[in-house]
Amino acid sequence: MSNLVRGVVDLKAGDDTYSLLLDINALCEAEGALDMTLDVILAQYAAGTSARLVRALVWAGLRAHHPCGMEEAGQIVARAGFVQAKDAIERALVAALPEGGDENPPTRDRTSAADGNG
Predict the structure, then answer these.
(1) How far apart are CA 27 and CA 107, in angstroms?
(2) 98 closest CA partner among 2, 4, 35
(3) Confidence of residue 5 (pLDDT cuts 50, 70, 90)
């Protein structure tokens, strides 16, 4: 069952439903599998996704609840349908990378910390 608060979304593939979680660990796994930084992954995804990119993101998203190999992730994408897999990835990415965070997070006052007052 989808739980966007926790960042988990469902991917229906045939009679099976898989839970995708694209948290920081999954995104790190995707970076390693694709040999790309997250910025590059997101830019390529936005520019027009490749099958390799979708498969790797599904694979990474499955690891928390349904660990499998890359080929099995590809089979799940095939059973789900490419468009449905992309939709699940997009929902998981939105849940994992919410907009509206503090653009200017507070910084630590290094002068007061250095003199023991902070």
Answers:
(1) 26
(2) 4
(3) low
Of how many residues is the chain composed?
118
Return the residue matching tokens 């200017």: 104
List pLDDT tens digits, range 9-33. 999 999 999 999 999 999 999 999 9
Cα 42 from Cα 66, distance rounded (Å): 23
Q: What is the DSSP string of 18-56?
A: EEEE--HHHHHHHHHHHT--HHHHHHHHHHH--HHHHHH
* 63: helix, strand or coil: coil
Average pLDDT in the 46-70 region?
Answer: 94
